[in-house]
Design brief:
The chain has 81 residues and is mostly helical. Helix 1 runs antiparallel to helix 3.
Length: 81
């Protein structure tokens, strides 16, 4: 991940890396491998992330906000009503 990379760019980079690895292992074309990667649960999530509401946000900021959100959720779950 690059400091100024957006969430969309980060997701696209991961998808491309996965597709290249699949193409090398399977002998598929890069296009076929990319289509297969997008069919996996992780590939679908990355595709949604690349096109989602956070796509223009800086990846580092987005990841930091996820950490804060998860910590807040854990704190809330640990509190008795």
């Amino acid at each position: 991940m690059q400091p100024e990379q957006t969430v969309s760019e980060m997701a696209a980079e991961v998808l491309e890396r996965q597709a290249k690895a699949r193409a090398e292992r399977s002998g598929q074309s890069l296009e076929e491998a990319f289509a297969e990667v997008l069919k996996t649960p992780a590939g679908r999530r990355l595709g949604e992330l690349a096109d989602g509401p956070h796509r223009h946000q800086k990846a580092a900021q987005w990841q930091a906000s996820l950490i804060e959100e998860r910590a807040a959720q854990r704190a809330h779950v640990g509190v008795s009503p």
